[in-house]
Structures are given as structure tokens and as C-alpha cells.
Fold:
Amino acid sequence: MNDKSKKPQKLKARLPRGFVDRSAADIRAVNEMTGKIREVYERYGFDPVETPLFEYTDALGKFLPDSDRPNEGVFSLQDEDEQWMSLRYDLTAPLARHVAENFNEIQLPYRTYRAGYVFRNEKPGPGRFRQFMQFDADTVGAPGVQADAEMCMMMADTLEALGIKRGDYVIRVNNRKVLDGVLEAIGLGGDDKAAQRLNVLRAIDKLDKFGPEGVALLLGPGRKDESGDFTKGAGLNADQIEKVLFFVGIKNYAESAAQLAELVAGTSNGGEGVEELNFIGSLVTSAGYQADRIKIDPSVVRGLEYYTGPVYEAELLFDVTNEKGEKVVFGSVGGGGRYDGLVSRFMGQPVPATGFSIGVSRLMTALKNLGKLGQDQVIAPVLITVMDGDTESMGRYQRFTQALRAEGIRAEMYQGNWKKFGNQLKYADRRDCPVAIIQGGDERAQGVVQIKDLIEGKRLAGEIEDNATWREARVAQEIVPEAELVAKVREILEAQAEDRRRAG
Structure:
């Protein structure tokens, strides 16, 4: 057999690992959710801005790859000038670039929000994707922690606008300066201790997962999990571990504030951090946000290294069932903090900034669990069937379709093989169309149309036992003048909507 006679290989359709196709229902749910978030941000005086998906790799921040490993953590390519570009890892670093590049044109404080996809070149897993959506809000050029307090209040208002009631969420607030002060107080200050400090931060971040005992092991010699895998610890001594655990174990900040201030006394930033936390606490309380909504919590450790002051996290407190069938607390759906050094990288001068990011996909999952999203059923379009294919008939069908659309009613004219009419009704059934419009030669001569209530037809069909009765009944079908088409369709759709309301 020669090469010419070989059948060409079919291309295999494959979704890339770590990526997902989104359904119409998911897209509508996201649009519904982001619309509510946007309303809150706009009410607070924030304006939208959009940055591109790609940035030069060196602009994305020190927590990203060095020049020798441009594909570590991000998806990168070289442009025609052999400069490395990467798909954005988050929405904050591109904003910092945008502000620096347009610094003379923008008005400070610059209050902005952005929604869009970010990309992480990381190992995918259950519920962990390489492309996901974030929704951020930031204030650039505001040095006072009142801007951080406002962010926390806006996070609380956003969650409530989405239908999450008080008691089901909390905004937890900490300050990296206080944490740095604690680390300095136990002898982990200075550049030579950077790696050890990072290990301590990682250990603290596991508090919810492993509890104080597990964190104590991670702060000290290390921890062995149930599978036998060993994680090396940060190597702290007992006194150092005690002080760290005291800090992250504070439940009632007001009762422990004096002791904490004593612990960080004499450190370069610790005292200032305590004052900032106290100020935020006072501001949010004055505005009516009590500790059940915004809480000072020293256990909060944000993962990105560029945070320089207050850090905050939005946590959902209700239980959900995980993939193993276990009841677990839903946990974090977003967070942020102050990042005064990020814009400064481009400027050579200090530029204060603070902001937070909502994980849209994760929050959407939470809202679906609560029954707060995707409950508004999208009605399929009214189907205008095609009985005849001549120009005049087709023109009429199209006119009916446009008349319905002009009145805000979803409608489509059948675009498949019109010669098999049965297939059109099958199509309407599979799409769950509420109404079908039928006009053959006889109806056209009389200037009328048949209108078929497909929802009522399905219901009545269950009550009719034989085909003869079915044909005689002409189930849920009536004939109206062409001029009354829109009004009659609207009447049927409203009756169907009322039935759904009563059933729901």
C-alpha cells in the first residue's frame, strides 16, 4: 500500500490538562455574580480598568521566575525581540505596571477594579486549574491604613450583596509588620534568615489544617504525615515556637494586644504594625462592622511575598461536603493586603497601594452550595418553524422572529434541514423551547399562525393514552392572526412563568 492510499489520521480532540470548557449555565452564573460584585465596587467609587493577558516576564514580580527559568510557574514565550513575555499570574502585578507607565496621567489615589483570567503553570488537580478568573479592587496612592480598612468593609459588603448572610463569613485581618516583628523578636531578622522565615510562614499557614500541635512540629524538627512522608521543619527552639504559637493563637485580639505589643517592642516594624491593627479595628467598629464581620486575626498569612503591611482574607464559615464525602469548612474565597513595594519597583520612589482579589470560580462554587446562584432559569428561545423554503415564506418566518426579538423575547428561526418537519419539533423538545410557531401554506393564505405551547403540551401528553386522541386534541395549540402573534406568545410565556413560581 502506497502513502497516497493511506487514510489520513483524524486529529484527536483533547482538552489541555488543567483547563476546562465552561457551559452556558456556568457562564451565566459568573456574569450574575460579577454583576453584583461590580455594583458594590462602583458604589464605593471604584472605576474599571483592563490590562492585557500578557506582560513582560520581569514585570510580574519577584515571586515569579528568575531569568534563567522563565517557564517556572508561568506560561512564557519569546517575542520577535527575544524578550520573554508571560501570561499574567495575577491581576495585581499588571496593575502596578499600568500605574507606573501612566503615573503622570492618572489621578491619585487611583481606585480601580478588574476582572479577568489569570494563568498558573502549576500541576493541576481536583478543583485546581491552570486558568481561573479573579476579580480585584485596588487603591494606589493611599498611604494610610484607612484604605485597608475600607477594603475589608468592601469585602464584607460584597459577600452580603451575593447573599452570604452574617455568621456565614468573616474578614480576617493581620499585619505583616507585626509578624515580621515577632520573627525579629525571636532572632529571625536579617537577610541571612530569609529562608528560615519563609519556612515559618509556611508552617503558620498550615494552622487550620494541622492545628497548633502540627504547626509546632513544622516550626521545630519537622512533621511526618499519615502516609509516612516527612516535611522538614523550620528548626526553631522551644522558646521561639512558644512565642510564634502565642501570636497565631490569639483568639481575642483586644485581650492580647498589650502582650503582643510587649513581644514586638524594640523591633523595627512590630510596634508600628500593632498600632495599624488597632487603628483598623477602631475604624471598622466605628463604621458598624463588628468582630463577627471583620476580625483581627494574627493567624492570617498571605502567600505572596510582596505584602508589606495589613493583610486580609475573606473566609466562608459554613460546611460543605468534599469529594470524599466529608464535611469541611469552605474556607477562603479571596484576600489581599498592602503592597507598597510593587509599584515602586518601576518608579524608584515609594508608591503605597492596597487591594484584594476574589477567586471567582471558588466563590461561585460556594454560592451554588448555598443556592444563591444560578437559580434564575434561562428560558430557551421560542422556535419559529420552517414549513416552506421559498423566499416569500422564509421572509415571513424571519419577520415573525424579528418581531418577537424586538419585544425582548428570545426567538430563533429553525436553521437546520427544514424539509423534515418532525426533526424541528424534536429540536424544540431537546432545547426545551417553550413555544413553537407554525405557518404552512393554508395558514399563510388566511394570514394566521399556529402557536403551540410546548410546555403545556408535554404536561397534557402524559394524560393522553392513544395517538388518535392526541391527533383530535391538538394539544395546547391555537390559531391566531399574524398581528396577534407577539401578544399571544407573551401571554403564554407569562402563564408558564407563573406556573414555575407556584411550583417553586
